[in-house]
Amino acid sequence: MTQGSLAHTTFTQPERIRNFCIIAHIDHGKSTLADRMLQLTGVVDSRSMRAQYLDRMDIERERGITIKSQNVRLPWAVTNDAGVKEDFILHLIDTPGHVDFTYEVSRSLAACEGAVLLVDAAQGIEAQTLANLYLALENNLTIIPVLNKIDLPAAQPERYAAELAHIIGCDPSEVLHVSGKTGQGVEALLDRVVANIPHPVGDSDAPARAMIFDSVYDIYRGVITYVRVVDGKIRPREKILMMSTKTTHELLEVGVISPEPVPTKGLGVGEVGYIITGVKDVRQSRVGDTITSSVNGATETLGAYQDPQPMVYSGLFPLDGSDFPLLRDALDKLRLNDAALTYEPESSTALGFGYRCGYLGLLHLEITRDRLEREFGLDLISTAPSVVYRVTMDDGSEHVVTNPSDWPGGKIAHVHEPIVKCTIISPSEYIGAIMELCQTRRGTMGGMDYLSETRVELRYTMPLAEIIFDFFDALKSRTRGYASLDYEEIGTEEGDLVKVDILLQGEPVDAFSAIVHKTNAYAYGVSMTEKLHKLIPRQQFEVPIQAAIGARVIARESIRAMRKDVLAKCYGGDISRKRKLLEKQKEGKKRMKMVGRVEVPQEAFIAALSTDAPTGKEAKK
Ligand SMILES: Nc1nc2c(ncn2[C@@H]2O[C@H](COP(=O)(O)OP(=O)(O)OP(=O)(O)O)[C@@H](O)[C@H]2O)c(=O)[nH]1
After folding, report:
1. pTM for the whole structure
2. Does residue 33 sit in the same domain as residue 160?
């Protein structure tokens, strides 16, 4: 019922520990509720409270989304039936809510015994609510259903409590009503966490086993690794083994977060905290890995470790070619904190030197680009995102293609592309519009369920490539922003895919090549040639713009010749003025890229490459 004492005694009895997380659709108020919990339990006083305390990165606070998990230890005291006050330690694990970070979410969930399932009382269940709920159920978590934002005038608690109860199979009266904003109902929620969520169970005498569920880079301390101890104990100065990398490290510091890091004498069964080992790169301290003692340690890991797999690739090029070394340094720095980011040098005839980067998804791509521009002051141009294709040739050889320019020449036997399972939740009046959209995106319907009389869940399988273009936008505009979407990769399928090249005066421009489904090739060709026709200024000779599949031209435009004589305006004038005009023309030319003999302004590349693919959180509403 009340704030507990903040004693960081080590090896808390597992019976006194509750490990839980909050799962919710984006914007349903997870961070705000976590803030209230920090305040109510007294770990942050009102004076030092700032909005969304747990979202540490500036970019997170600005966008209002949670990218990296943070966890915090909260003391909470409950008066039992006999009227005696009992102290508990609650570990709140703040999980990222976005589809790009599913693996991180699943590891955070694995560190908990229970989950608060938070639903906005004015919105109801959304696609990510369900995706996260299923993940929580797979991890056998106890679910506490909660409606948030009940202070909102638009809240419809009865309606959505029924929806929530229907989904998880409980009585609507069991759904708690809270407001993260005003704090209403939050105490009762913390009491419910203690009452309903099982305490952790483990063998305190067994060799130590702890799971890494997050890993962040700190410029002062190196990598800070968050762990949940399952068996045994870990203590400072002990040597540990990371079981997937088979590397040993000394534990320089072990502690808990409350909400700042506080060193402790160690962590015991069920406890959640951080370790510092002196590793410099998050890749050496991987989310999902198991740590154990280096001597007489455990032999079995806690679940299989999985490497984060990039799903979307795109080229990043500095607008100013001389910034290339800066881009390389910036990526090296970002990688310290982002185990999922991959990159390798790439050169493009049109865009110069850059990097081919692999991301978990579009939001990951956008965040990375944002950080490069903001934190490192780089001006960048990125090429259209692409998925991973597996191309098998007639001679049986195989190619993995993440970049259209690596598309193999010669006879292709078949191409496999990644397929995702999508869940779309929407008011039922938009069913027709959604089905039509999914059909045009090569979707196959997997099923449909009514969540209530007016809201429906649609399930589709669809190529990932169709989603990464402008699917969110199209879905949003067809449903007036009411539909929400979640997807997960489920494998690959054969697709009828071709590479479309765009040629200027017969020269292919690598930055504009794309891999598209055969039925979309013509549309892509026409739209690119038309766009470029508008964007490229006239030259002193005629410039044909063509779209082609192999040697076959499928669309064509042409820019008429024009002689641009900058001196025309000042015939007979004095020589210094002429020189000035010529100098100016030279300056302008610097911003031109040469494609064969054709001068293309940089702006044309930027404009032609800017897909309208929505990648931010708006896309998820
Ligand atoms: N009226 C009202 N607004 C709330 C409440 N809780 C959160 N909000 C608002 O809802 C918006 C989203 O809240 P966040 O706490 O950032 O949501 P979130 O779920 O953490 O979002 P992500 O971290 O992006 O997943 C913010 O503008 C909050 O001010 C509430 O109880 N009542």
Report:
1. 0.75
2. yes
Question: At CA 102, angle to CA 100 and CA 104, rounded to 5?
Answer: 105
Q: Do you know the residue count of the chain?
A: 621
Q: Among 21, 22, 26, 27, which residue has the most ligand 1 atoms within 8 Å of its CB, making it the best to mutate?
A: 27
Is 548 domain-assigned? yes
Question: Do 504 and 378 fall within a single domain?
Answer: no
Please indicate, yes or no, whether residues 366 and 277 belong to a single structural domain of this protein: no
**DSSP 3-state assignment of 195?**
helix
| 8 falls within a domain | no
Q: Which of 405, 418, 409, 358 is nearest to 385 (CA)?
A: 358
Q: Which of 472, 495, 518 is the last residue of a domain?
A: 495
Q: Coil, strand or helix: which one is 264?
A: coil
Cα(75) to ligand 1 centroid in Å equals 24
The whole-number average pLDDT for the span 449-477 is 88
Q: What is the pLDDT of residues 478-495, one digit of tens each?
A: 888 888 888 888 999 999
Give the residues surrounding ligand 1 with Cβ less than 6 Å away.
Answer: 24, 26-32, 52, 64-66, 97, 148-149, 151-152, 179-181
> pLDDT tens digit string along 66-113?
434 468 899 999 988 888 999 999 999 977 766 677 777 888 899 999
Question: Is 90 exceeded by the pLDDT of residue 451?
Answer: no
Helix (H) / strand (E) element for 31: namely helix 30-40
Report how far ligand 1's centroid is from the alpha carbon of 186 (Å).
14
CB 193 within 8 A of CB 18: yes
Give the DSSP per-residue string, 416-444. Answer: EEEEEEEEEEEEGGGHHHHHHHHHHTT-E
CA of residue 268 relative to chain centroid, distance? 32
Of residues 572 and 187, more confidently modeled: 187
Q: State the helix-helix crossing angle for 186-196 and 30-40, rounded to 10 degrees.
A: 90
